[in-house]
Amino acid sequence: MDELAVKLFDIQAVKFGSFTLKSGQVSPIYFDFRLIVSYPAILEKVAGLLWKKCSNNATVDLICGVPYTALPIATLISVTNRVPMLLRRKEAKEYGTKKLIEGDFRPGMNCIIVEDVVTTGTSVLETAIELRKLGIQVTHAIVLLDRRQGGKENLSKHGIELSSVFHVEEIMASLEKQSKVDHKVAEEVMNFIRGNRQPILNRNPRLHVSLEERRSSCKHPIASRLFDLMLAKKSNLCVAADLTSLDDVITLAESIGPKIVVLKIHVDILEDFSLTKIMQLKEVARAHEFLLMEDRKFADIANTVQQQFHGGVYRISEWADLITAHPLPGPEMITHMFGDSSSDSRRTCGCVLVLEMSTKNALTNEDYAKEAAKWGLIASDVVTGFVGQSAPQSDFPGWVQFTPGVNSSSVSGDSKGQQYCSPAKAVLERGADIIIVGRGLIKSPDVVATAETYRSEGWAALTQRITNP
Ligand code: 5BU
Question: Which positions bind substrate (predicted)?
Fold first, then answer.
């Protein structure tokens, strides 16, 4: 290892001085591993060490390098060890297939990502997102150098274990030992690295991608429609119409329809429910262009949920554009409740998984949400998004995060366990794409003016998050 560190220094792949980084920070150390391609023996050594890390740790069906520096390294690993490679483009080409990932694979295969340097892990994550969109599993990434600036933790939050050949500490120790740098420089570098650990939360790429781009990643027509509505209406407002009369819900919907993209109801609190009336509400939704969400929170065995969804008095699948479901019973529930692949409701209604709840002492902790988000990807042909209170639960850009518990007043919650935050906090700190507002709006004396206030605050926050990551 000492020998490789010295070689990297000798070919100036590790440099000391004053360097302005992409982030604007001035760093006393700079790594330029692109140079490695000019030194076949070093390239071979690096590929060998990386392969050792990955073959120790995981099943490897495929490998994929992060463009561009890691591409020749990944190629060498692939050829030497006879492990097939995938090629990731930086941009989809304008002509032909528009594929971002080239190569032969089957969904379910496990792919290791290869990278030269990891700082916050964003580039590895972006590659993982593209692979996961195709059903390829990504559980490990290997890197020559981990700068230890949050990358390992960030990737771990997304289910990716990062193994590295070097840390900066080890390179500095080797170079100091071989008298390539003096102690003062080594200290300065280490202080810089320790002082620049990046915030992890805001590194989720989903949060900073344009809505147009996210729309193109959607797998479900209802998610695409929602992005279209958001862009057309400049709104990310969902109103929770928790009224007990469907007539009143229809009146409310007629007045605030132009401001919202989703109207959420609880069908089982309506005292005057009838299929005729719910179809009237559906007409209002069509006229004012918003989606109708039934917040049923299905959570039973598939056989029961299937009947709750399609049958009974409410016949939810005939009118809901979106339904909520708890992931608790596992992915089978979701896949079966929608019926077989020929069932219309698979395309006309999208499932929103409740990964986290807004209430005090909710049992939906980080591990639960993480596991649930993973299997949500298994049922990804019917899952359009999730209900969540924190950003990192899913980085898949085609999924929409709905965040309830939004209220602009100064109250921190109701007296029954509900907890509130402002629209800006929901969007900027918690990763909400859609804010869900209930009593903050329906109890206000002027619902139209209040809807406009929530619409403009929510939209401004979303625009800010996308344009100023
Ligand atoms: P409120 O009046 O803004 O507190 O209403 C919030 C709505 O969102 C209400 O319909 C709840 O059933 C729904 N909700 C929630 O508040 N918290 C959650 O975690 C989930 C749904 Br999931």
Answer: 242, 264, 358, 418, 438-439
